[in-house]
């Protein structure tokens, strides 16, 4: 047998540059008889067996481990012999992930495993190097006694290993009748990759030093024979070791957990729940009952025939848990909203029949795949739902999913540059040139940097956790697949999502959505005044809501708050729920090209539908195919496909495979001919389907997310102050967004007040139709300190500045007090800021009690400009002392306008200051700049073209200026251009 041990792949993150498929391919080309993988964890296990089978080479699964032994550490390569060994390596791998792996555990779980000392980092080799051969011998004897299958690893990777250790190891091994095997630490493919490997190790540990004489490149069979020519017996010994291995990975069959039911079957219980739910859903409506009943029975039969009764009951159970524990559940997501059973069980809140959603888009009886119900929960309550499911089904039956972060272009360049100690400013310039394909090939340092960075690009860098996916199984997963344990004590797969799905494991996505938390908190505020308020009872034809959307006042509204979306809202002026559904489906790359045509047709532009038979399908979207379900309807109603066949057609066409396209074309024409349609019309309609198949959006998802968007817009339109209060609390820490929301409130003449030491908490507060900033918005004061302030305040407000300092002297420092003063939080003490600053020293608190007739020494208040600067430092923006307040008389005298006047005028002159600027180069290499201007109430983005920029470059600072800007239309979009900038007379504060 020829090959070597200590082969690793790039799954040994930051220790190896060889992707696993490349390693196996080269092992085959190098005439290896086997591939023994011993990565730091078992991430690559599935790919080992998959690619080994492809290349007809024997796979051996192993793991590199290190454990504490006597006063140091010693390393082993652990290989799987049989099924028992596989179970044990899973245990060892899990213990390793928890940093709980011990020498004793290796001994305990040794059955079915082969142990090989790992060369340079084993205690035996280190003792030999230190001329302590007797101790090395005694440890060999102990390992031989402790481990049933034990070999020594013979490494020749460095001069010391080859000249000092190897001969002595051979001699000692003979004394105790131990066999030794060829060890070659394989970390990069060819010698040219050595620099990349060394850089990779330094990214992980800047102090790492590779032995100068070490060579860890891959060796083929001939090179190995030559390398171990003085120890030819290692390959005979290797025959014995490899022949011990008879483990072959066979993918287990996983089942869904069984939902516990007493006295009946899962089929009967699911049916009874669904029928009961349908009655509740239809109660008090004018909907045609028999249509719903037929659809429900059909769905139930498909669900049962596909074996998914328990799946629906499991999801129903944890959704019910959430809804009965004050956890808002999203109305639906993805194709699951097309299921009437889901709607009746309360899993979704979208009526699939009312919105013409198709069950087959979700669960296709002709395409056996796992159902995919994704659930949205408030991001602060998601973990509570997951914990409920974990407790119900067991820690070993519900796991999270690992992800692998890889080196991207930017990160690989930055990491290698850090190792090469290249200045960060130079690195930024290099990255910019790389992205613009303008690399200077004469710059040797840049060329070397990019050569090395290219070699690590795409390699795994670190692990993470899938944002939403959880795996649920009837089996104890720790017995079947390798797991890790995270810091929260939750098990995680060592395989990523695609690998787990290939094993047939059930993935459920539990998504944490900030917007649901906002909706929940707004509802709680509403219920303080109206306890009977129900979100699911709000009308979908509310005039105030559509007015808000038509005016694009959609800041903070889910899916509708981007500038691009606002532009479309202004043009579309939605007035029905269907408008929102279509907008969410169209506002994506590709379909976006049809938005203007859609709006024009909606507003009366004539259009023709390609065939009368398609009128009912395409009329709601004005002849444009927007949804995937429309494609399915066309195939079903025009060509006679079943809906299940129509879904397969849609999937096939969307792959854009020419062979599939032509095959489906013939089938479509045949089915149309059977319904007496001409070949010409059949081909025309098929071409239309092909054209829109890539653009078509999942209508089920669009309806569900449109409902969330509408709900938020409704709450904003009808409960504006409450909505904005919650929105501000959820934007804490983002100064720019907070200021934009406060500006929006001011436009509505709602006062936003500075923090108040006796009223503020850690969130924004709505009180007496005014919104008060939280203490948490003040710089230098953290959440723990805010809580201590609240606790100290309790039910007794701070009566004055002395009392405040006295009660908080052990909670806050002088810097905190300074920021509290500048923010306005202590204004209720009726002292000016300058006086409080001069008397801020908290360590003096209490001295006043011992001084008769004590009185603070008062100081003249700071000027307006200083107050403004201090306030901005404390909270990040100006709330009370806005710079433009100094210029109100000037604005009135010169009859200046505001940014808001651009709603009715195409050119304005106003006072403002620049909050942001971005300079770019045109295609001709000339400069132009984009700036954001604030007028105290509103902000606007405007452009300075090259000549204007050159004329006014010196004025682009943060000082107050007078701006002339005018409307400009670019690519049919309204933009604004700066025409002139003026300095103004100074006005003292």
From TrEMBL:
Q: Which Pfam families match?
A: DNA_pol3_alpha, DNA_pol3_finger, HHH_6, PHP
Gene Ontology biological-process annotations:
DNA replication
> Start and end of every DNA polymerase helix-hairpin-helix motif domain?
750-835
Q: Which UniProt keywords apply?
A: DNA replication, DNA-directed DNA polymerase, Nucleotidyltransferase, Transferase
Top-tier EC class = transferase
* Keyword flag Nucleotidyltransferase: yes
Domain PHP residue range list: 7-153
- The protein depicted here goes by the name DNA-directed DNA polymerase
Highest classification ranks of the organism: Bacteria, Bacillati, Mycoplasmatota, Mollicutes, Acholeplasmatales
| Gene name per UniProt | dnaE
């Amino acid at each position: 047998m020829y090959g070597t041990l200590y082969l690793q792949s790039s799954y040994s993150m930051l220790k190896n540059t060889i992707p696993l498929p490349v390693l196996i391919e080269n092992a085959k080309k190098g005439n290896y008889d086997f591939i023994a993988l011993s990565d730091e964890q078992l991430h690559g296990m599935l790919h080992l067996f998959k690619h080994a089978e492809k290349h007809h080479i024997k796979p051996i699964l192993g793991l590199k481990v290190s454990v504490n032994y006597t006063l140091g550490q010693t390393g082993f390569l652990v290989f799987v012999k049989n099924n028992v060994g596989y179970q044990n390596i899973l245990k060892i791998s899990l213990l390793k992930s928890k940093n709980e792996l011990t020498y004793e555990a290796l001994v305990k779980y040794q059955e079915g495993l082969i142990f090989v000392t790992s060369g340079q980092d084993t205690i035996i080799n280190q003792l030999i190097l230190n001329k302590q051969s007797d101790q090395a011998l005694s440890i060999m004897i102990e390992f031989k006694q402790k481990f049933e299958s034990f070999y020594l690893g013979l490494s020749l990777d460095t001069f010391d290993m080859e000249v000092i250790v190897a001969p002595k190891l051979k001699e000692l091994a003979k004394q105790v009748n131990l066999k030794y095997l060829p060890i070659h630490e394989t970390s990069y493919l060819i010698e040219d990759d050595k620099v990349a490997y060394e850089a990779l190790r330094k990214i992980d540990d800047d102090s790492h030093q590779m032995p100068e004489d070490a060579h860890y490149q891959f060796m083929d069979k001939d090179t190995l024979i030559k390398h171990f020519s003085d120890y030819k017996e290692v390959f005979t010994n290797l025959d014995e070791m490899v022949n011990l291995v008879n483990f072959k990975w066979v993918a287990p069959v996983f089942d869904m957990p069984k939902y516990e039911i007493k006295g009946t079957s899962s089929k009967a219980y699911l049916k009874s729940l669904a029928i009961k739910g349908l009655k509740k859903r239809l109660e008090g409506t004018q909907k045609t009952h028999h249509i719903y009943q037929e659809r429900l029975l059909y769905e139930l039969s498909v669900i049962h025939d596909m074996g998914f009764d328990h799946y629906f009951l499991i999801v129903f159970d944890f959704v019910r848990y959430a809804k009965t524990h004050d956890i808002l559940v999203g109305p639906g997501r993805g194709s699951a909203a097309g299921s009437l059973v889901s709607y009746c069980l309360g899993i979704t809140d979208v009526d699939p029949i009312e919105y013409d959603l198709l069950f087959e888009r979700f669960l296709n009886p002709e395409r056996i795949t796992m159902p995919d119900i994704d659930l949205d929960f408030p991001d602060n309550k998601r973990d509570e739902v997951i914990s409920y499911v974990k407790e119900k089904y067991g820690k070993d039956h519900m796991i999270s999913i690992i992800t692998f972060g890889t080196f991207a272009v930017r990160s690989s360049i930055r990491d290698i540059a850090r190792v090469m100690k290249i200045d960060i400013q130079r690195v930024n310039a290099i990255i910019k040139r790389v992205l613009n394909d303008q690399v200077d090939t004469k710059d040797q340092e840049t060329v070397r940097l990019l050569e090395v960075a290219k070699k690590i690009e795409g390699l795994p860098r670190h692990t993470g956790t899938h944002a939403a996916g959880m795996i649920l199984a009837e089996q104890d997963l720790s017995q079947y697949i390798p797991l890790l344990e995270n810091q929260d004590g939750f098990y995680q797969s060592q395989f990523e999502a695609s690998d787990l799905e290939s094993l047939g494991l059930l993935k459920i996505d539990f998504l944490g959505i900030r917007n649901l938390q906002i909706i929940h908190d707004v509802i709680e505020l509403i219920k303080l005044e109206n306890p009977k308020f129900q979100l699911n009872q709000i009308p979908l034809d509310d005039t105030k809501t559509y007015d808000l959307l038509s005016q694009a006042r959609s800041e903070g509204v889910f899916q509708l708050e981007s500038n691009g979306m606002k532009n479309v809202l202004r043009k579309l002026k939605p007035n029905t729920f269907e408008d929102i559904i279509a907008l969410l489906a169209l506002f994506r790359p590709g379909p976006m090209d049809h938005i203007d045509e859609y709006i024009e047709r909606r507003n009366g532009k004539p259009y023709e539908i390609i065939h009368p038979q398609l009128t009912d399908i395409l009329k709601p979207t004005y002849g444009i195919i927007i949804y995937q379900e429309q494609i399915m309807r066309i195939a079903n109603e025009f060509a006679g496909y079943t809906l299940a066949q129509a879904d397969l057609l849609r999937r096939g066409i969307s792959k854009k495979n020419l062979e599939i396209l032509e095959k489906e074309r013939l089938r479509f024409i045949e089915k149309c001919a059977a319904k007496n349609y001409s070949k010409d019309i059949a081909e025309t309609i098929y071409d239309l389907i092909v054209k829109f198949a890539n653009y078509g959006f999942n209508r089920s998802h669009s309806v569900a997310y449109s409902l969330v968007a509408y709900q938020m817009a409704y709450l904003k339109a009808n409960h504006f102050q409450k909505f904005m209060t919650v929105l501000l609390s959820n934007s804490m820490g983002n100064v720019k967004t907070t200021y934009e929301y406060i500006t929006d409130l001011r436009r509505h003449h709602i006062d936003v007040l500075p923090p108040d030491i006796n009223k503020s908490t850690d969130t924004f507060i709505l009180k007496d139709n005014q919104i008060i900033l939280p203490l948490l918005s003040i710089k230098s004061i953290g959440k723990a300190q805010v809580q201590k302030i609240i606790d100290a305040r309790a039910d007794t407000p701070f009566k004055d500045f002395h009392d405040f300092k006295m009660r908080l002297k052990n909670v806050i420092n002088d810097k905190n007090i300074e920021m509290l003063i500048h923010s306005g939080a202590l204004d209720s003490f009726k002292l000016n800021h300058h006086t409080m600053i001069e008397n801020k020293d908290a360590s003096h608190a209490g001295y006043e009690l011992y001084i008769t007739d004590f009185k603070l020494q008062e100081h003249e208040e700071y000027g307006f400009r200083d107050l403004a600067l201090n306030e901005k430092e404390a909270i990040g923006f100006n709330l009370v002392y806005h710079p433009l307040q100094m210029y109100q008389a000037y604005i009135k005298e010169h009859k200046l306008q505001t940014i808001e006047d651009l709603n009715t005028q195409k050119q304005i002159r106003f006072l403002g200051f620049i909050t942001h600027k971005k300079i770019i180069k045109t295609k001709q290499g000339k400069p132009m700049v984009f700036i954001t201007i604030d007028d105290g109430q509103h902000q606007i983005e405007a452009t300075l073209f090259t000549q204007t920029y050159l004329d006014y470059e010196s004025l682009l600072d943060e000082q107050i200026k007078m701006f002339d800007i005018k409307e400009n239309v670019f690519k049919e979009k309204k933009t604004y251009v700066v025409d002139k900038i003026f300095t103004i007379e100074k006005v003292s504060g």
